[in-house]
C-alpha cells in the first residue's frame, strides 16, 4: 500500500487586522486512510478557503468556510469536507479515503475584501 505525503505550508497572513496561521507539517498517511488539516485565525469572522497546489504549481480551490456539499467541485465533493469551529477559531479540512493523487501542498487562505472585480469580454474576430 503506497504512502502519501501531505504538506501544509507555514503561512501567516495579515489582512485588515485578521491573522491566519497554518502550521508547518508534513503528514505521511497510507492510501485509504483519512487526514485532518487545521487552519487557525486570530479574531472576528473571516472568510477562509482551502486550496491545493497541483503538480503544475497551480492553486486549485477546494472549498470555503460556508461551502455546502453542492458548492464543492466534483473532484473533491465525495472525500473532502470542511468544519468551522468558531469557538476555537479554526477551520479544518478533512480528506477521507486518501488516494496517491492527494499527495500535495494544501493552503488555507483568507479572502481579501473585494473592492473591484475586473471583467474581461472577448469578442470573436470575424474575417
Automatic annotation (TrEMBL):
Keywords (A to Z) from UniProt: Adaptive immunity, Immunity, Immunoglobulin domain, Receptor, Signal, T cell receptor
SMART domains: IG, IGv
Ig-like domain segment(s): 31-126
Signal peptide start-end: 1-17
Stretches that traverse the bilayer: none
Gene3D superfamilies assigned to the protein according to its UniProt record, in alphabetical order: Immunoglobulins
GO annotation terms (biological process): adaptive immune response
InterPro entries for this protein: Ig-like_dom, Ig-like_dom_sf, Ig-like_fold, Ig_sub, Ig_V-set, TCR_variable_region
One cellular component (GO) term of this entry: T cell receptor complex
Protein name per UniProt: Ig-like domain-containing protein
Organism encoding this protein: Xenopus laevis
Amino acid at each position: 500500500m503506497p504512502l502519501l505525503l501531505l504538506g501544509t505550508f507555514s503561512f501567516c497572513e495579515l489582512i485588515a487586522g485578521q491573522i491566519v496561521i497554518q502550521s508547518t507539517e508534513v503528514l505521511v498517511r497510507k492510501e485509504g486512510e483519512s487526514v485532518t488539516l487545521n487552519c487557525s485565525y486570530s479574531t472576528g469572522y473571516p472568510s477562509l478557503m482551502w486550496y491545493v497546489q497541483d503538480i503544475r504549481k497551480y492553486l486549485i480551490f477546494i472549498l470555503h468556510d460556508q461551502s455546502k456539499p453542492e458548492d464543492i467541485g466534483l473532484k473533491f465533493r465525495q472525500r473532502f469536507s470542511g468544519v468551522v469551529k468558531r469557538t476555537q477559531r479554526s477551520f479544518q479540512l478533512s480528506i477521507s479515503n486518501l488516494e496517491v493523487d492527494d499527495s500535495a501542498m494544501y493552503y488555507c487562505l483568507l479572502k481579501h475584501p473585494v473592492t473591484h472585480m475586473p471583467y474581461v469580454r472577448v469578442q470573436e474576430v470575424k474575417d
